[in-house]
Structure formats: structure tokens, C-alpha cells
Amino acid sequence: MNHIFRLMTLTLALSGSLDLLRAQEPVPNLEILEERAFKQAAAFINPSIVRIETVGGQDRVGKLITGTGPTSGVIVSRDGLIISSAFNFIGKPSSILVTLPDGRRFPAQNVATDHLKMLTLLKIDAQTLPVPLAIPESEIQVGMWSIALGRTFDLEQPSISVGIVSALERIWGKAIQTDAKISPVNYGGPLVDINGRLMGILVPLSPGASAETAGVEWYDSGIGFAIPMSDVLKVIPRLNTGKDLYPGLLGITLTGQGDLSTDMQLDRVRYGSPAQEAGVKTGDTITHLDGNAVAMHSQVKQVLMNKYAGDSVSLVVTREGSPDPLSFKATMVEKLVPFESGFLGILPQRASIDQVEAGVGIRFVFSKSAAAEAGLKPRDRILEFNQQKVSDASALALLVNHLRPGETAELLISRDQKEQTVKVKLQSTPHTVESELPTQALPSRTAAENQKDKIKTGHLKEELPGSESTFWAYVPENYNPDYEYGLMVWIHPPGNTMESTIFKEWKSICEQRGIIIVGPAAQDIIRWNRDETEFVKEVVESMQKRYQIDNTRIFLASHRDGSEFAFDLAFKYRELFRGVAVSEATLKNKPPETDPDYPLSLFFVLNAANPLNQLLQPQIELIREMNYPTVLELIKNENPAGEYLEKSTLEAIGRWADSLDRI
């Protein structure tokens, strides 16, 4: 019995010792295991990641300096096809070199580019290359590990950035989103799962822009995108034919504002667009696209912004007067006919902000315009346009804006308290400035009256609230807060604010034409930085809060090298600015397509002796072909090229600015 007891005691003791030994065994470190898994995933995909170097080409694209360092690509066929990000080739390099992980180096041919998904297909003369294993799209889920890789300087080991899949079908259904850090180093590289299977190709993208540099500003921000590999594989055969692919355009604009709007009525159907040729009309209401019900603007974008030029789309719409829904089919195109609004040829009377009167009074009739040919006169009042009542100038402008040059309209006007009907045939907006444009006299106030109401007038020095950034302004001493004023935003050239010159030369013009000047100052006086666009916008908005500003007469003005920044502002904030007037300067980059909702007029002044003249002339032709109303004034005098403008030229710009609210 004692023997059995001792045996049981020994067994328990041994058992306890084993448990103690097990407790003392090292527990695997989770971080070490994760790191090991990441390295194994990278090793699995590593043979298919290539280094890409470019030689020659443009140093800059827009404001962006193109990269000169190596970037990345992924092998997609055993016989030498390589996919990469189109961003890596925006500088149009003269030659492309691809280095494989084993050190072999090949010249590469740029086969074609997908401008919708921002991918470029390359070809090298090599065989039996390792093609990576792609993960089935159905297995990609939000929250799973995602590893972004690239190959730059180290051929043996790729660069690694780890994150998770943040979202699927982002950028209107085109991309996987990851919070791994994405940058030009790994643009064109692979996004893989924890097993090293290929999820997609890393590219810069933006939901609100489609330019070739869109999305680059988000690099290393934790917001990155990859085109799903299933979509890449579908498009490779099309790219391999050697033809570029472009986003498809239908040519419609919906009413309502914002992606969450549920107003599905068509505000515009572009002239000559696939939608118009298919039979779709302004005022139709879209209910279905490609057989799927759509009830929100974002749903329309999800369908249309994932299609290529040449792809077809089916539409179902309801139309007033039609008892049944109507079905159409359209083939999307790469380019639309540039938008061009009809021009009536009047300036509206500027009433006080609290004055309420039916219709729109005519202040001025442009010479040889549709209004002039129809016999309209100053002090006439337009009550209706094509049987639609006109409440104010903005309503009339919108109605005219929806018609093209050559189309006719019927106006109901009041003249000498008698109503009559007038027919007009709209024209194109002229590229000229009226030689004579009477000012509209506004009731004046004294400086003392404005001071009593705590309204600052005269030459002011200001600081933006909550910021150390400064600006100066000139508000006419006779400013009357019962009326709206134009606003000139002066963008000074690098190295010289020109404040005293601008104040002196523009003071009398501002008083006559009802214009306020505001002059933001660059933080570093010798240059404007790209991130200062927001500061300028905030300065304009602060002036809008303090003074009565006419939104249709806010324009930018600049001289020489300040003009580039002025154009950047105009094209970035289309909803804010209605004009740009520059002197002794050209347009560095091609402007975006004209926007029917935010018209923009341009004014160039150049000394005929300036060598820039040879560069500017073809630019003016291109801009006018894009239907931007563009004035060009060549100065012929003895002054050296580059000097600021004489009074007569400034007065012409003043007349142009005073007519930015033309209809």
C-alpha cells in the first residue's frame, strides 16, 4: 500500500515538473511570426517585381517635377509583358530600362496606356519569366492584411509597407484601398496578401480628379489604391494591341449637387455627345443604367466612370409627356465637342441688394450682338425667356447658358411700360472688349458714413484671422454696402508685391467701375508655393464676408511670373473665379475643359516686342478652340518688354472686368 502511495506521489511530482517545464517554454512572439509571414509573402512575389528606370523626357508635368529615380513594375506574362503605373511615364521618357531581380537588364517598349485605370503595359525581349499567382477577387475582404511592395535600389530585397485592406470598389468601383504607405517608390508595384498572392497593381488615384497626376498628393498618407488584378488581366489583351484606352464620356449633367443627391433629372445633354445622338434630352430623368436601377448621383458615377471610350451603356429614362419609360443605347467616346454657351449680348442692370423687381433690366447692349440685332435697348426689361419667367440676372444667364450659338429664343420684354415679344438668334461670346462701356453710377457714401457703420474703406493692411499670412486691400472710399462690387485678386510676381504701383494705377478705375482690390502676400516673397492656394481662397472668402461682392465679377490679375500661380488658382477653384487677366506672360499648361456651370474669361496683354509673343499666339488659338472667351491685346510702344501696363491698357482690362457678368 505504501509502495502504491509513493508511486502516485512520484507520478504527481513528475506531472507537476512537466507542467512547470511547459510553462517555462518560450511562447512564440506574435510580432516575430507576423514579420516572418510578411517576409515570406515578399519572397513569394519577389521574382516577379522589376525595377524600372526612365531616361530623358519632360522634367515637369504641370506643377509636378517628374521623378528621376527608379520605380516598379510586375511581370504579367512569361514572354516579357510588364504592367506598371502610368504615373511613372508621364514625363514621356525617351527610353525605358527594366532590371529583373536576377540582375538582367533590358530596354523596354511602351506598348500602351490605360488612361482610365492609370496603367501602362511594357514589353521586354525575354522568355520564361516568373508570373505571380493572383488571389481570386472573391477572397479579397476588408480588414485582411495587405502588403505593398516595390523595387528601387536594392535588387535582392523589395521595399515593403504593411497595412490592411481598408475598402473595396473605391474610386467609383475601380480600386482596392489600403492603409499601407504608397509612394512613387512603389507605384506600379504589387499589393499582395499575407500569402504573397497578387491582389492588384499600385497606382495613384483620386475620387475627384482624373488628371495624370491626380492622387499623387496622397503619397505616404495611409490612403493608397491598387487596381484589382482581375481587372488588370482583363485589360492586358486590349493594351497589347498597342492602342491606348481612354475613359468613356456620355455627355450628360445631372441637376442637384453632390454625389448623394437623388435628383436624377438631366440638367444638360451636351451637343454632339453620345447621349444626344442616342435621343436623350435635357429634362429627362434617368431611372436605370445597364439594367440597374439608379436613384443617386453616386450610383450613376459608379456605372459611367468605370467605362472606356467605345464601351456601350444602356439608359432608361422617363420624359414629361411620355406615358412609358424610354430606352436608349449609347456608345461612349473619348472626347466631347467643347461646350459653348450662347451669348445674348447684354449687361444686366445692377440693382441694390434689397431691390425686388420682376425681370432683368438692361444696362448695356453689346455692339453687333444678338441683342443689338434684335433691337434691344438699355433700360428695356426682360420678363420672360422662351416662355419662362425671369426672376433675376442669374436665372436669365442660366437659361441662355443652356442654349448654343445659332439657336433662337423668344423674349418678352417691357419697354416704356409696354410689353412686347422679341426673337433673338444667339451668338458666340466675342473675344474682344467694348471700346466704350459706360459705368453704372452707384449712390455714393462718405468715408464718415462707412466709418460710422464700422466698414473699413481705403488702402488697408490686413492679417488673415488665425494666421500670420497678410494681405492688402483697397476698398473705394465711396463704397456703398447696398450694392455688389467686383473683386480683383492681385497675384504679385515673385520678389515684388507691386502694392504701391497697383494701388496708384487702379485706384481711379476701381472707383469708376465698382471694384475692390485684394492683394495676398506670399509667405516667401520670392515665390508662390502650391500649398498657398488655400490661403488665397480664404482671403477671397474673408472679403466676401466683409463686403458685398458680386460672385460673377471676381477675377485674378497678375504680371509676368506671378501669372502661373494665378492660372493655378483659376483652374483649381472654378466655382470662385470668373476671369484671369495677365500681362507679359503665357499659359504654361493646357487648360481643362470649359465648365458650363462656371464660365471663365481670359485676358492676355503682351508687348509685341516680347519674345513670348511667338509662344503665345498658338496658345491663344488653342484656348479659343476650347471655347474660352479670350482677349489678346498686343502693345506696340517704346517701353521695354516686361514693364507694367499703361493707363489705357488698364482701362481696357477695367472694361473687361466690368462686363464679366455679361449674358
Structure description:
- Helix 10 crosses helix 14.
- The chain is 23% helix and 29% strand.
- The chain is built from 14 helices and 34 strands.
- The protein is of the alpha+beta class and 663 residues long.
- The protein has four domains: 195 residues, Thrombin, subunit H; 80 residues, PDZ domain (Pdz3 Domain); 80 residues, PDZ domain (Pdz3 Domain, Roll); 212 residues, 3-Layer(aba) Sandwich (Rossmann fold), CATH 3.40.50.1820.
The multimeric state of the shown protein is: single chain
What share of residues is helical?
10-25%
Q: Number of domains in the coordinates? A: 4
- Bulk shape: globular
Architecture (CATH level 2) name of the largest domain: 3-Layer(aba) Sandwich
What is the number of strand segments? 34
The low-pLDDT segments are: 1-23, 60-65
Strand content: 25-35%
Gyration radius, rounded: 32 Å
| Global structural class | alpha+beta
Give the structure's gist in a few sentences.
By secondary structure, the protein is α+β, with helices and mostly antiparallel strands. The longest helix has 23 residues, at 2-24.
Strand-helix topology:
Elements: H1 2-24, H2 30-45, E1 49-55, E2 60-61, E3 64-65, E4 71-75, E5 81-85, E6 95-99, E7 105-114, E8 119-123, E9 145-150, E10 159-169, H3 170-173, E11 175-178, E12 190-192, E13 198-203, E14 224-228, H4 229-239, E15 252-254, E16 266-269, H5 274-278, E17 285-289, E18 292-293, H6 297-304, E19 312-318, E20 326-331, E21 346-348, E22 360-365, H7 370-373, E23 381-385, E24 388-389, H8 393-401, E25 408-415, E26 418-425, H9 447-452, E27 458-463, E28 470-475, E29 485-491, H10 499-513, E30 515-520, H11 533-546, E31 549-559, H12 563-572, E32 579-583, E33 601-607, H13 612-625, E34 630-635, H14 647-658
Parallel strand pairs: 29-30, 29-31, 31-32, 32-33, 33-34
Antiparallel strand pairs: 1-4, 1-6, 2-3, 4-5, 5-8, 6-7, 7-8, 9-10, 9-12, 10-11, 11-14, 12-13, 13-14, 15-16, 17-18, 17-19, 19-20, 21-22, 22-23, 23-24, 23-25, 25-26, 27-28, 28-30
